[in-house]
Amino acid sequence: MSSVRIVVDPDELRSGVVNALEKQGVEIEITKLEAGDYVANHWIAFERMTIDDILKSVFEDMLLFSRIKYLAKSYERPVLIIEGEDPFFSGRTINPTSFQGFLKTVAVSFRVPTLYTLNEAETAEVISNIARAEQSDEV
User: Given a cut of 80, is residue 123 above it in pLDDT?
Assistant: First the structure.
């Protein structure tokens, strides 16, 4: 079985995702990325956001939209990973219409699929599984 290699933005070193990837035997390359947090190959990149990050970005500074738009322009197959508990059942005060509007914009306007994970370990599993499948296709 060949080694899986993922390029990781240094900002992601604060999360537990990198540790979890290394435990799965993934080779990590730390490089400042212009777009995305994790890159599996030249066409697939992941932007990882926690629910709290999204709520703050969507409702306070709108920075997330520009990040996702740039990700979509930079990679043929970008993926947004939303990590954390369901925002509607977690005791947060959230406007469902606004959050659904955000998801619609990501999916329809930017054409970026969204995957949901509960925690960093699950995020690492999703990233490594996709990278493993895609990198084995490259051989």
Answer: yes
Q: Are 43 and 76 in contact (CB under 8 A)?
A: yes
For the chain, give percent helix, strand, coil, nearest 5: 50, 20, 30
Q: Which stretches within the chain are classed as H helix?
A: 17-23, 51-56, 63-74, 96-104, 120-138
71/36 Cα distance (integer angstroms): 6
Domains and CATH numbers, the chain: 5-138 (3.40.50.10130)
CA dihedral 103, 104, 105, 111 (to 10 degrees): 100
Q: Rounded to an integer, what distance in angstroms lies between the CA atom of residue 21 and that of residue 4?
A: 10
Neighbours of 31 (CB within 10 A): 10
User: Whole-model pTM above 0.85?
Assistant: yes
- Listed in sequence order, the residues at least 6 apart from 126 whose beta carbon sits closer than 8 Å to its beta carbon are 81, 115, 117
